[in-house]
Amino acid sequence: MKRLLLCCCILFSRFAFAADTLPRPAELEPDVQFWIRVYTQISTNEGFIHDQHKLSVVYETLHFEADTPPHERARRVDAQREHYRDVLLRLARSGEAQDADERRVKELWGVEGTAVRLTQAAEDIRFQLGQSDRFRAGMVRAGAWETHIGEVLANLGLPAELAALPHVESSFDPYAYSKVGAAGLWQFMRSTGRRFLRIDSAVDERLDPYRETEAAAQLLSYNYRLLGSWPLAITAYNHGAEGMRRAREQLGSDDIVKIVRDYRSPSFGFASRNFYVSFLAALDVSQSPDKYFANLERSNESGFRELKVPSSVNAATLVRTLGVDRDTLRGLNPALRPAVWNGQRSVPAGYVLRLPSSAAKWTTELLAQRMGVPSSVTLPVATVTTVSDVQAMNAEAKPALVATASAGRQGRKSRKAGSSAATSAPASTTIAAANPPLARAAAEEPTVTPAAPPTAAASAAADNAGYYLVQSGDTLESIAVRTKRPVKDLMALNAMHDQEDIYEGQRLRLVKEAPEPETVTTAATVQAAKEAVQESEEEDQALKAANRQVARTEVVSKAEAQAEGPELVPGAEGSASVDPVDYSVAADSTIRVAAAETLGHYADWLHIPASKLRAINHLKGKTPVVIGKHLKLDLKKVTPEEFEQKRRDYHERLEAAYFASHRIDGTEVYIARKGDSLWSITQRSVKVPVWLLQQYNPDLDFGDLRPGTQISLPKVEDVAGL
Question: Which of 51, 58, 63 is nearest to 126 (CA)?
Fold first, then answer.
């Protein structure tokens, strides 16, 4: 698999962030100060009894002996919570404090302490476990990766301050797992991670801090392009892009203060409301460590070399051949799963293996020779040993309109875009990206040349390749006439149960042997897709189970903190889906049609015939539904929630199958020109499915593409077989 190359176009590499890039509103300052106290003043043997909405109201600090059993801690927390509930209710009834304890509580609320407010506060009492020991440990660990993280963020034109996010997510523990399956330094769920990383039975790149950092940078950049502000983009890292877009739409504002204070949603709970302020607190602490932690010694960066494994090989054989200590090799390659080390799985061919810097003699060619691999299947790769080496080599490559950058860490390689994997001379690669505020810069210095509109020859080629791309206004009957194939044959070839099951941008198979760009075609990748779907469903079920918990979920011990998850703002409230498309049903029982959806899908999810939906929506003939248009539903047999769940499940399965054999490797800006259509756009490079193109451009009307429109186009790799 081609590695993500950390270079970006001049559009971003020289972007100077304004002072308000990461605003710290005065209205949220009490919340920030609360989290600074949690991170620096109280340990996992202490905790605050506090109000969950007005964080400046801390009723008491509880202290526990280190050996206090969890059940005893929980008993004390519950007792004190009940005590303050009684105090607040007495104050609400009488309005006068009867003792010193009540006077202290009344003073905490000041003029806000009306009877109504105090009654509400009685139900909002919460316990927050301290985190100072964990945060300090995270500060120590962070030293090992801070240079790499800084370079990755800089090379993608992102704020350097985002480097503090792993403090909130994992305390910089690269092996951290949450109770709902998030893993690694940046806490990626499997479903999200598979967009950017290899995750299977042999390799989980979420556990590789270098790989996961690159993926996190892509995700944060994606969130920013969708939402247009860093407070929202950072909150979306926890709450999901769809959730933050809905919050912005509901309130008619992208003001983080308004959203934090006023947005109401079952999934927007304590963790989501506090994610941005806890990040600001972590940033404050990480930027002034000596102010909060004495005698802090940071971990050193690790030096290493990299080479590609030329063919699949057993770990024991690899250790023996290289003569490298097994524990050392395992420590340098955390992405290799236990099944590899116990011999159940092999190190896959093409895996980029890290070796100690002292293993200077080893190259891919030499390893292939020692392993007896024929030279025709070797995967030569240039290796370098220091960050400065990469910087020097990249500095020599200066193509027009491209600002080169270092590969971001020791052993990182660069390769020229479009070059063979066998190229030995490192060079630079461009990743053209687009953020909303940079439109003017894009106009001044265009970085992507628009492709010519599809020609008749190109359309014919698509036909000759054995498939047909559904266009706006097509029906199955019209396609049958155009392709000279009976309707029943088209339905059989494409496993269609209803003539309604077509949508604009869909590729219909025309012959049995036709290649299908949007689906996996080998036995290995089909199995990988099945495993991806199964794992995604299991992960989703775990998340739903966590969200359905009605028992007390507040962490009261260090052990529980680890069990609840490594994040310093405990709580799993939503799937944090990367998909920004709104799949909800509006109050008037309408939906907005999304890519890869058909009238047949809706009819199936609603348990009604498609003809009834056509009648309700006054749709003529057999024309497919149009992406972005509104459609009225008949909800007599299912609830809106049931329909939404089936709709989301469908898209999650679609994504899981696709990302079993594809990875996103950056983003480029495409400038639409006259004659462009979904067909011409999705055929660039590795063919991008329409639903993925919509996710990157959720507000774009693909039925009305105008010349000059900027389109975010994900750069996709086909990694089937790797």
Answer: 51
> Tens digits of per-residue pLDDT, 482-530?
888 888 888 888 777 677 667 766 778 888 754 444 433 345 445 555 5
Give the C-alpha separation, 506 to 464, whole Å. 16
E-only strand ranges, 579-709: 590-592, 630-632, 662-671
Contact in structure between 2 and 350 (CB atoms under 8 Å): no
3-state secondary structure (DSSP) of residue 378: coil
Q: How far apart are CA 1 and CA 721, in angstroms?
A: 9
C-alpha 183/C-alpha 211 separation (Å) is: 13
Which of 139, 152, 157 minimizes the C-alpha distance to 409?
A: 152
Residue 119 neighbours by CB under 8 Å, 6+ apart = 88, 89, 92
Q: Give the burial string for 627-653 (b: 16+ CB within 10 Å, else e).
A: bbeebebbeeebeeeebbebbbebbbe
Question: Which residue ranges in the chain fall short of pLDDT 50?
Answer: 1-19, 378-464, 514-522, 524-525, 540, 542-553, 562-574
Tokens (6 digits) for 405: 């950058």
Q: Are strands 46-51 and 125-129 parallel, antiparallel or unpaired?
A: antiparallel
Rounded to whole angstroms, the Cα distance separating 718 from 722 reads 9
Q: How far apart are CA 403 and CA 11, in angstroms?
A: 9
* Residues contacting residue 10 through CB under 8 Å, at least 6 positions apart: 401, 402, 403, 445, 447
The whole-number pLDDT of residue 420 equals 33
Domain limit, last residue, from 369, 385, 401 = 385
Residue carrying the six token digits 């070797």 = 378
Residue 122: inside a domain: yes
Look at residue 601 in the predicted model and tell me its pLDDT.
94
Q: Which residues, 6+ apart, have CB-to-CB distance to 483 below 8 Å?
A: 463, 468, 490, 510
CB 9, CB 32: distance < 8 Å: no
Q: Enter the tokens of residue 535.
A: 């794992």
Say if residues 681 and 675 touch (Cβ distance below 8 Å).
no
Does the residue 555 lie in any domain? Answer: no
Is the CB of residue 193 less than 8 Å from the CB of residue 215? yes
Of 114, 129, 144, at which residue does a domain stop? 129
Distance (Å, whole) CA 473 – CA 621:
10
Q: Domain span at residue 81?
A: 45-129
φ/ψ of 382, rounded to 5, equals -70, 135
Q: Could you tell me if residue 329 is inside a domain? A: yes
Total number of domains in the chain: 2
Q: Helices 132-142 and 270-287 sit at what angle, rounded to 10 degrees?
A: 60
CB environment 19-39: b (16+ within 10 A), e (fewer): eeebbebeebeebbebbbbbb
What is the per-residue pLDDT across 123-176, written as a single tens digit (0 to 9) for each? 999 999 999 999 999 999 999 999 999 999 999 999 999 999 999 999 999 999
- The verdict on pTM exceeding 0.90 is no
Distance CA 131, CA 319 (A): 39
In-domain check, residue 357? yes
Phi-psi region of 489 (alpha: psi -120 to 50; beta: other; left: phi over 0): alpha
